[in-house]
Amino acid sequence: MEGKMDPSKDDLPLMANVGYMLVKHYVLDLDVSFENQIISGTIVLFLEMGDKFQKVHRRVREGCCSQPDEGCPARESKACCLPVASLSSSNTGHNDFSASDQGEEDCSQENDHLGYSEQASGISSSKSSCDTEHHGREDFVLVLDCCDLSVIKVEAVDIAAAPGIEKYARSAGLNDASELRNSRNRIVSELVTLSADCWQEKLSCYAQCSQAPGCGELLFATDPWSLQIWKEGVQTPADFPHAVRIWYKTKPGGRSVMWTTDQSNRLCVYTVGSPINNRALFPCQEPPVAMSTWQATVQASDCFVVLMSGENSAEPLACQGGLSSWFYYVTMPMPASTFTIAVGCWEEVKRESSMKGISSFPDNECRLAKRQCSHVAYPCRFNSPVAEVQAIIPHRVFAPLCLRDRCEEMLLPLIPQCLSAAHATLGTHPFPRLDVLIVPSNFSSLGMASPHIIFLSQSVLSGGSDLCGSRLCHEIAHAWFGLAIGARDWTEEWLSEGFATHLEDTFWANAQRLLHEEAKEQKELKALLRWRRLRDEVQNSEEELQVLRPKREKTGELSDSGESVVKHGLNPEKNFMQVHYLKGYFLLRFLANQIGETSYFAFLRKFVQIFHGQLILSQDFLNMLLEDIPEQKGCELSVEAIYHNWLDTSGIPKPLLEESSAWTENRLARQVKDEVRKWIRLNQRNRKSSKRKRTQDEVLFEKLLPDQLVLLLESLLEEKTLYPRTLLCLENTYRLREQDAEVQHRWCELIVKHKYSTAYGDVEQFLQDHQAMGVYLYGELMVNKDITQQQLARRCFAVIREQMDVSSAKVVGEMLF
C-alpha cells in the first residue's frame, strides 16, 4: 500500500483504498456469544473496481496504450501496479481464536508459509514469506478499515459453484464451466449491476453466493487501523477476486460495540456508533463514498431479540440448541457507518396498529429515465405513489422490561404525531419502517439514528413529553439529513446535526399542533437557550474545534487510493461538544429568516427530492439555495460570505451576534425574567430574615414551560449566592425532581454550586440515571474543591464506571484523578 498515512493523534484515519476497489454488498453471518462477549462468524464482500481505477482501466482497454508501463497514465496513477504494504515480519504462532472454533481446517495445512499471531493492535496477522517480490512485480492490496478484531482466515469465493449462478454467467457471456471458473469477476459484476426491480432475486443470489466454497486462500496482514488483503501474482484490482470471505471475531473491549446490561439487569449488546463507527464490528470500508447494501443473519440464544438497520421487520427462526436466527437486509446503498445492531431481552411495547395492511415496501423502483432521481438505481420510495402519501410508516417500540409501561404511556403516542409532522414538512419518508429502542443507561447521547432504527436514551422518558418529543423529532429528521442525504466528508457534521436540530423545532411544533404565534415563541425561546449554550462552548473550547469545515478548501478531497482522515475525529473533547449542532442550526435559521420560512421549507422539499440517495458537501446545498432564490442573492448570501462567517472560522458568527439580542424580548423569555426577579427578591428576604419562617405562598409564581424552567435555572445560576431556604422553595414550587432531564441537570448544577447538601441525593441519582448528560457535572463537583462533593463524584463514578461508555469514562476519570 503506497502513501500510508501518518495521521496526528487527534485525526481518525480512513484507510480503505476505495479509489481502487469498492464493496458493493456485504453478507454477514454472525453468532452472538454473551458468555464470551464476542460476535463471530463470516463476512462476504462483493467488490467492484473503484472510480479511480476504472477510469485508467478503461483508457488501457480502449487502446490508450497496449501495456501499462513507463509513461502510461495507468502507471502514473499507480492504479495498474499497486504495491503491497511494507510489512514487518510476524511471529509464527497460534491465533487466540483457532480455526477449529469455526469448524474449519487449520489453514496452515493448505499454505504452510502462513503464520498467525496476535499483534499488539489486537488484530490477527498473516503474510507471505516473500512479501513484495513477485517476479519483479508488486501485488495489489485491498485495504479495509478494521480495528479491535481477530481475523482468522481470508479466501476468495468460488461463486461459479453457487446454485443458480448460470443465469448471471449467461448474462456475462459465459457458456461453459471453464469460462465460469476463469471469469468469476465478470459474474459478480453482472450481479451487482442487476436491475433495481430485481432486488429480491438479487438478495437471494447474494445469499447463495456467500455460501459457495472457497477457491484459494488469500494473504492478509493488519496494522492498528486496517486489514490488508492480497493474492500472490495479482497486480491490479481488475484481476483481484471480486468475492472475498473473511472469518473473524470481535474483541470484548472493541470500540464499536458495547456489552452491558439493560435497566432490568439483563444482558445486551449494541453498536456505539462513534467515534470509530463500525470498524470494530466488521472489516469494512468506512469512507462515506463507499456506499453499499447489506444483508445479515444473526444467531443468538432464543431469549434475545435482535434488532438491526433493515428494511424488513424480522421475526426469529428457531434453530437447534436453543438458538434463534434473525435476518435483515437493506436495498438502499448506504455508508457502512450507518449499520446498527442491538441484541438484548427487549420487550416489544405493543398496541393496536392502525397501519395493518399497509405495504412496508414500494412496489416500484426508481429509474434515472424518470428524471426524478439522480442516485444509483435502487427501490426508491421517493418515486412511489404509495410512499408519497404515507404520513405514518409502520413502527415498533422496544424497551427493557422495567420501562415498558413508561414507553407505552409516553413514547408510543408520540411516534405517529412526530412521523406525521415530519411528512408534512419534508414529504416522503425515505425508509419504509422504523424501530425505536430504549437503550441501556450507559448510552453516550440522547439519541442516535440509523436506517430503520432509532436508539433513544432513557433520559428522554423523564418528566413530561417535551424532551421525548423534541428528541424523537431530531432523530426522525436524520432519516432525510444524515441518512438519505449524507455528508461526503465526515468533517461536515453540520450537514447532518445542524439540519436535524433546526428541523426538530418545526417537526415538534407541528406535532403539538401549535398555532403560528405559539410555535414562533417557542422556537425563539429555543434559539435563546441554544445561543447561551453556544456562547459558553465557544468560551471553553479550542478554537479549531469550533470550525464547521476544518479542512476548508480541501473538504471532500481524497488521495488517489481513497484514503483520508476525519479531522479531530479521535479528540475526546469533541465527543461532548455541540458546536456542529448549534452553529449549523443558527446558519439554517439565518438562511430561513433571510429568504422567509415558507420559501425556505419549499426549497428544502425540492432539495430532498433532488439529492436523496446521494452524498453532498456544503457547496451543493448552498449553491442550489442561492440559485433557487437569485433575487435574494447579496453579499451576505454568497457562498464565500457564508464560508467566512459561518463555516470556516471559529467563534460566534457576526450575523448571529446581531440577531441574538432580539430573543430576550420574546414573551416567554420576558416572563422568565419576571420570575427571576421574584426569586432574587425572595432570596434577599431569606438572607435578611433567616430566622423567620417563610413559605412559597408569600410569593405567587407563574407556571412555566420546561424550556422556560431551563432558562430560569440557568439565570439563577448566575447569582452568587442562593440560600438553602430559597433552594428548598424553588424545588417545591416547580417539583424539580419530577421534571425532565434537562431541567434536572440545571437543578443539580444549582445544588453543586451552592453546596446544598440536603439535595446531594438528587445529584447522585442524576449521575446514575442520565450518564449521557452527567459528564459536565463531575467537573463541577471537582472544581469547587469541596471534599464532600469530590467524594460524591468519586463514589458515583465507582458505581457505574465499569458500565460507562469508554469515552465518557476516560474523560471523567481524568477529571477525578
Describe this structure in words.
By secondary structure, the chain is an alpha+beta fold. It has 3 domains: 12-271, no CATH class; 346-541 and 577-662, Orthogonal Bundle (Neutral Protease, domain 2); 667-816, Alpha Horseshoe (Serine Threonine Protein Phosphatase 5, Tetratricopeptide repeat). It is built from 24 helices and 26 strands. An 8-stranded mixed beta sheet has the order 8-7-11-3-2-14-17-16. A 5-stranded mixed beta sheet has the order 19-20-21-23-22, with helices on one face. A 4-stranded antiparallel beta sheet has the order 12-13-18-15, with no helix packed on it. A hairpin with a 3-residue loop joins strand 16 and strand 17. The protein is globular, with a radius of gyration of 28 Å.
Write the layout of secondary structure elements.
Elements lengths: L11 E3 L6 E13 L4 E12 L1 H11 L11 H5 L39 E2 L5 E2 L15 E5 L3 E9 L8 H6 L5 H6 L1 H9 L6 H12 L3 E4 L1 E5 L2 E5 L12 E8 L6 E5 L5 E5 L19 E11 L3 E4 L8 E3 L3 E13 L5 E4 L2 E2 L36 H4 L6 E5 L4 H23 L7 E5 L8 E4 L2 E4 L9 H12 L7 E3 L6 H18 L4 H24 L24 E3 L12 H17 L1 H15 L2 E3 L1 H11 L10 H9 L6 H7 L6 H22 L17 H11 L7 H11 L6 H13 L6 H10 L5 H9 L3 H14 L5 H11 L1
Parallel strand pairs: 2-14, 20-21, 21-23, 24-26
Antiparallel strand pairs: 1-25, 2-3, 3-11, 4-5, 6-10, 7-8, 7-11, 9-10, 12-13, 13-18, 14-17, 15-18, 16-17, 19-20, 22-23
